[in-house]
Amino acid sequence: xxxxxxFQCPCCGGAIEFNSTxxxxxxxxxxxxxxxxxxxxYDSVLRSAQDDDLNWHAQPGSSWQEEEEASLQDYLCQSCxxxxxxxxxxxxxxxxxxxxxVILTGRxxxxxxxxxxxxxxxxxxxxxxxxxxxxxxxxxxxxxxxDEAHLEQIKGIYVPFWxxxxxxxxxIRYRATKLRRWSTRDYIYSETHYYSVLRKGRLGFDNVPxxxxxxxxxxLMEALEPFDxxxxxxxxxxxxxxxxxxxxxxxxxxxxxxxxxxIKQSVEDVFYETVHGFDTVSMESSGVQLTNSRxxxxxxxxxxxxxxxxxxxxxxxxxxxxxxxxxxxPVDRKAAGLWTAxxxxxxxxxxxxxxxxxxxx
Length: 361
Fold this sequence. Notes:
With about 350 residues, the protein is an alpha+beta fold. The protein is built from seven helices and 14 strands.
């Protein structure tokens, strides 16, 4: 005996029945009527929906040349465990993350060679100037924070990034409504029309960045974007002269999921912008498949400042290519208390003035 096909109401989710009076399928819960052909077409759309396929199929990186390994030194921070790379002319340095002295551990080994690098365009003086601009107008900032001693801790560092390319095919379904209201002398009426909106298409993505440093806060690195990848060049050790380079401690495999989620979110945002003419729109299902996936290993230029205030470490970063500056500033608690007290007094004065005006009226 064949199974009886059951349909759920696209409007409210209830089980739809055939109504002999109207000779149509009708939902007994919301009274919406449907043609059987429309329900079959809708059911076909639901059955054809695909799940996400966000797997990558290519690995980045190559091996170091013997002469390159000989020209680079490996440093280890005993305080935070950070590993950095510097050219052979660097005799001693400090950790860009915590400021502690770092110890030379030997020649570089055991990491992939970057495929490309975006060279620094802005120098240390520009980084200092951008920090001052970032602090201008901040009434609650501790006065000592802009002392020259703190600015000297700024270091230029090449941060490791994994860059992911992929083509995508996506199918996204939305639930949309149009609402109509009108009134008569005695009643106010509203009528809601429900729609199932389907979007399918292909999008290509190039150089989706994911930083490969566990010590670098993801939010901080994403806030520095975008980097102009058109200015990237093939990696040469000469670009490291005068700067530090962080050794990646998050490999490409571990970064894939984050890259896939960034791509998926971008696809959903682009598709959502194509749905117009409705009062409400909500996503019901989303399926994104990746194809032709590729990955590259790159070094991006970043100026880093780390300092402490009241036992808390603050990290600031400037895009060494564009000058974009980000970071959370410390707050002077005494100044904040005075500012809050002043605002409270002003608010109280305004309330008193308003009450006095009402009394006069």
